[in-house]
Amino acid sequence: MLVDPITSMWSDRLFQGTLVVLLLAMVFTSLEYAAARVARVARKEPATVGAGAEDTTGTAVEVTEPPADASDGAGDRPTRTRSDRYGRIGVSLMILAVLLHAGSIVLRGLATYRWPLGNMYEFTSALCLMAVGAWLVLVRKHPTLRPAGVFVLTPVLLLMFLTGTVLYAEAAPVVPALQSYWIIIHVTTITLASGMMLVPGVASLLFLIKRNERPAALAAKLPGAEVLDRLAYRVTVFAFPLYTFGIITGAVWAEAAWGRFWGWDPKETVAFVAWVLYAAYLHARATAGWRSSRAAWINSAGFATIVFNLFFINMVVAGLHSYAGV
Amino acid sequence: MSSPPTAPPQPPVTTPDGEPPHRRGPLGTALAFLRNTWRGLTSMRTALVLLFLLALAALPGALLPQRSLNAFLVDDFYADHPTAAPIVEVLGGFEVFASPWFAAIYLLLMISLVGCVLPRSLEYWRGMRQPPVATPRNLARLPHHAAADTTEEPDAALARARGLLRGWRRTERSEPGGVRTISAEKGFLRETGNLVFHLSLIGILLGLAGGKMYGYEGDVIVRADGSEFCNSSILGYDTFRAGLRVDGTNLNEFCVRVDRFAGTWLPNGQPATFGADVAYQSGADLRSGVTSWRPERIAVNHPLRTDGDRVYLTGYGYAPEFTVTWPDGQSRSSDIQWRPVDTSGSQLSEGATKFERPGVEDPEQRRTTQIAVTGTFAPTGAIGPDGELVSVHPDLRAPTADVNVMLGDLGIDDGRGQSIFTVDQQKIDSGELRTVAEDRMGIGDTVRLPDGTTVRFDGVTPWVNLQVGHDPGQLWVLGAAIVMVGGLALSLSIKRRRFWVRVHPSGDGSRIELGGLARTDRAGYGEEFDRLADDLLAPTDKKDG
Ligand code: HEM
């Protein structure tokens, strides 16, 4: 038996369950976001005083995170609790989604007796898991980010929906080229890195919205520009070496599988382009005049390139990676 | 190149007006021009622009068909866009990664990178050998600061500070009035990581270039029936791509014998595993006259490696064997390979097995007696919807050939090169080569031509396509790439920090002032500074400065 149909069915069910739970999480994070706005407006004054104190430090550009979202203001207890409660429910749902999602992926592996990253369905699914996981870790470390969760969930849900419909592939063994332990090393690191990159990609876009105050309605409710900028930088700094490592392991694999370690196959080329863009982002962050908006544009372009690599190159351009198929 | 955000702004790109006012001779002007060009090229902004250009320039390589990857797609592009294609061609769009403009961008980037990184590293290295900078007069003006009065003696406070700042580079100074200070600094490894990262990029490039110059790659089809292939000259190959410094006379000699091709497939025909059982003699074996062969299995993801050469299994197919028996009783057999034509993996193949009648010397007669068995071969034959032969499985389960036997002039004597897979279409068009029999054959079947000649389908031998690769640069590239990731991780994870302590003696204890400055990733210093400050000022009541 090459595929265990019962296990693979349960994997699919867990995937659907994940989608539903994420949808619910999205509802609650949206509610939290909406409520948080009210709270922040209500306590605008103390917040300004705090910032003023920061400014007296002259050259200081140091930015502390804004005071924990409304939760320490004693005066507006009702709004605070509501926003906070929604937020907590949202996070709990995300944790549940991560568990279901991980279960779905593990069962897929058990059903097919192989590493469950062999086609676009599995790859994108794992990417989404990584993105939500990375977000949860971040929120744990920096609770003030929590209200922005809805902006991470939106693209994740979109991707998940595509994954479950257009990209869906029956559980099946993979072609000989993919039967190698390198799939574990290469594809897993690339998935980790790509999933993480979603967070800075979103953060940079939000930063631009906040910076330009457009659309104003959206900008008003976002966390501070510096918080977003810092978030983007921190996660990129973590994910970029991982992405680099993923590309190198890909090259090592290609040397064994395709007869050369680098051949400018479309997937390799676009991976190279994304890599160069992220390198440019890091450089821009260190260049006067490029530090804020331009750097954010570059970071967004970097993530767009990763997504382009995933969809366009796999589905439209024929290359050696194509057997990973739809 | 990633200068810390606190670095001074880059010098302006070209500012002739900034030069001293005295008059310069032409040599001076030229030098100033060179210096300005160099400054411009090595500025961060230029590096950024070059990075963008590199990303942009690589994109067409993914979007346009590339000749080095698939020449057929380039031909298709020509057919689909007859006006655009020649323009793309002139711009190098079909060979992006071999084009001069692509090379120009990355070479400029490398120069910019060296010019940017080396001087900076030098500067940091000098900085590292000097004691940490003196404690600023007013610590309260620093981004991070704290102060407190304590009952601790100044000496005790300083000793505790030293303990907390273990691992930092420190220096202590005295100021008038018995005031003592510690300046501490850490994070110099960041620059080291940065330097290592950028230099290893150049290492990668050099490794790539060396590999391209001294490497080669060749393809050869070998029948999987104990046939041998020896890597002794270019002539042994079907196709050969040599590096600039390879003339084909100095190949690493080794021999491979292909004993068996083994594939397994899923019921739907999707391949499950591929492999070829081979045996080989390495260069050392051959030189020392060893006659035994080393067994090995070449499979996908598992090439044969010998003395820096790699042998890959890149494809397989079938060679149907036919025997032609002429009416006078003479016969000839041939099992030349046919090539797979169906990309969906059913291994439906086409080919042309050519025969010359033995003993016919007269050129005129030769031109009327040559035979080609052409057609389609299916490893597992079945009848398609229009009665055509299709293959329903890539394995040899029901070998079937739809043959088209042709008689006449194959054009072998014309001196033009011929494909082993096809007959000369011109000869068919001119009528010099005609179909004389058609049949669907299984193994053992015979077809009879009008003149009594018979063609028998004897059997099938699998063949494998071997690709031999030689790239002396690849280990260098790998080494440089690993070092690069290490340097990258170092330079992105290490943070440069400064920390100052000033202890004033006061009546019954001391007053401690602290200051901190982050030279990279400023946002992250807050918590770390607070922790240090809390520890240092712990037994005292910390007054916010
Ligand atoms: C130099 C060589 C390689 C590079 C630069 C490279 C790069 C990448 C990148 C960037 C991805 C992320 C995919 C995306 O965003 O869609 C990826 C995915 C993947 N790679 Fe590679 N890779 C290389 C070699 C290989 C080799 C040799 C194999 C297998 C024989 C392989 C198999 C896969 C698979 C299965 C995926 C995930 C599925 C998919 O995206 O379609 N890669 N690779």
Automatic annotation (TrEMBL), chain A:
The keyword Transmembrane applies. Residues 49-83 are annotated as: Disordered. Keywords: Cytochrome c-type biogenesis, Membrane, Transmembrane, Transmembrane helix. It is a multi-pass membrane protein. Coiled coil: none annotated. GO terms for biological process: cytochrome complex assembly. It comes from the Bacteria. Residues 118-321 form the Cytochrome c assembly protein domain. InterPro entries: Cyt_c_assembly (IPR002541), Cyt_c_biogenesis_CcsA (IPR017562), Cyt_c_biogenesis_CcsA/CcmC (IPR045062). Residues 74-83 have a biased composition (Basic and acidic residues). The keyword Transmembrane applies. GO terms for molecular function: heme binding. GO terms for cellular component: plasma membrane. The chain crosses the membrane at residues 14-35, 86-107, 119-138, 150-169, 181-210, 231-254, 266-284, 296-320. It is found in: Membrane. PANTHER family: CYTOCHROME B_B6 PROTEIN-RELATED (PTHR30071:SF1), HEME EXPORTER PROTEIN C (PTHR30071). This is Cytochrome c-type biogenesis protein CcsB. It comes from Pseudonocardia ammonioxydans.
From TrEMBL, chain B:
It is a multi-pass membrane protein. Keywords: Cytochrome c-type biogenesis, Membrane, Transmembrane, Transmembrane helix. One of its GO terms (biological process) is cytochrome complex assembly. The keyword Magnesium does not apply. GO terms for cellular component: membrane. Residues 1-14 have a biased composition (Pro residues). Residues 44-530 form the ResB-like domain. It is found in: Membrane. The chain crosses the membrane at residues 47-64, 101-119, 195-214, 475-494. Residues 1-26 are annotated as: Disordered. This is Cytochrome c biogenesis protein. The lineage of its organism: Bacteria, Bacillati, Actinomycetota, Actinomycetes, Pseudonocardiales.
